[in-house]
Amino acid sequence: MRNFPSLLNVVQRNCDISDARHAGEYGLCTFLLKMREYYRWENELPFTRALPRDELGDWLKTRELHWDGIEREEFGPLPLERGVLDPFDAEAANRELLPHGCVYSAGYGSFRKPVFFLGQLLRVEQRAGLTILISSCEYARELGAPPAMLQGKTIFVRMESVRRYLWEKIEEWQWRKLDNGMARALAAYDFIGAPEAALQRMAENEMETMILHELGEATAGELLGEAWHEVALSVGRSRAEVLVRAVRDLLADCLSTLPGLIERADPAALHFYFATFDAPRRQLFPQALEAYEHYLQCGSLDALWRVVRAGKERWLTEARRLLKLDPAGREAAIGAMLATASAPPGARG
After folding, report:
1. DSSP assignments along 42-79, one per residue
2. Where are the domains of the chain?
3. Partner of 260 for a Cys bridge, out of 68, 211, 212, 247, CB 3.0 to 4.6 A?
């Protein structure tokens, strides 16, 4: 592509503007972890190489000064051969870029942070009426870099970000090396003898889990309709918003992710799923963790199947109930869900 350097510069600039506006919304630990991996990506360092502390500190200061200077800039239009294009019109951009072996995505991530990405197209798949665009090398990215994302009828899967996401989780576990779900997941791969090959194998395995989740998100979207997008926004940037998003995630997981993992009977993928079963989902759905513990003790997946089948109806009902409520009612409903979840098993009703 003759105009590729210009396109790359604009996309990266838009990524930087997004980071300038929203990087402060991450918690400190999350921010530092993401910045470490962002530095590794920008400097093309292998995962196994220790990061230079002094250089990293200087880079952080320089990056924050750069953000201060561009925070109020507007996102730039994409300079394509057909002319300039709105930076959020990924579908139109990809009509030109895909034949050239490139893929572009634009949308909104957690807390409505704009997410832009430009990468090398690896392959295209079709599944359940959706197009799956899988990329390899990332040419431009922002700090969040979600490894998989549903936009309309397209799922974008970024293998480089999948690898980075996994490496972040591995590094977190290595600090304390607890005997937990992450330890069980990592035991399936040879991270001692061949860490790069092990990471690639794990990334290919976990990519399927991510696709399953995005397929579930698509189904959940069909069941809940366009009005759902306003539900999380209506409760503001609060704990209630995090839990509202967790309800949608749990619905997607019960519709697609967990059934797919159980059918695959892949212990490593199942262990990793529950190793990354975050606090909001644990709070709302402790029954899933109890079923996982049952699986660990006896090797049977029957309890998980029962929980997933019940979860489909439960989280669809809860999501539809949230749709009918005003913001104050939604916060009250989330509180009631938490109270029910934390009650002793016999009192949950």
Report:
1. HTT--TTSPPPHHHHHHHHHHHHHHHHHHTTPPPPPEE
2. 4-162, 184-347
3. 212
Amino acid at position 76, single letter: G
Query: Residues 24-39: pLDDT tens digits?
Result: 888 898 899 899 999 9
Q: In what order do the strands lie in the sheet with 102-108?
A: 102-108, 114-127, 130-141, 154-158, 148-151
Beta strands in the chain (DSSP E): 78-80, 83-85, 102-108, 114-127, 130-141, 148-151, 154-158
pTM, rounded to two decimals:
0.91
Average pLDDT for residues 191-196, to the nearest whole number? Answer: 89
**Stated length of the chain:** 349
**Which residues have a Cβ under 8 Å from the Cβ of 188 and sit 6 or more positions away?**
267, 268, 271
pLDDT-based confidence at residue 343 (cuts at 50, 70, 90): low
Q: Are 349 and 336 in contact (CB under 8 A)?
A: no
Residue 130 contacts residue 153 (beta carbons within 8 Å): yes
> Per residue in 31-78, pLDDT tens?
998 999 999 999 999 988 889 999 999 999 999 999 999 999 999 999
| Secondary structure (DSSP) of 186-207 | HTTS-TTT-HHHHHHHHHHHHH
Gap between the Cα atoms of 184 and 269, Å rounded: 10
Choose among 150, 146, 177: nearest CA to 275: 177
What whole-number distance in Å separates Cα of residue 178 and Cα of residue 196? 22
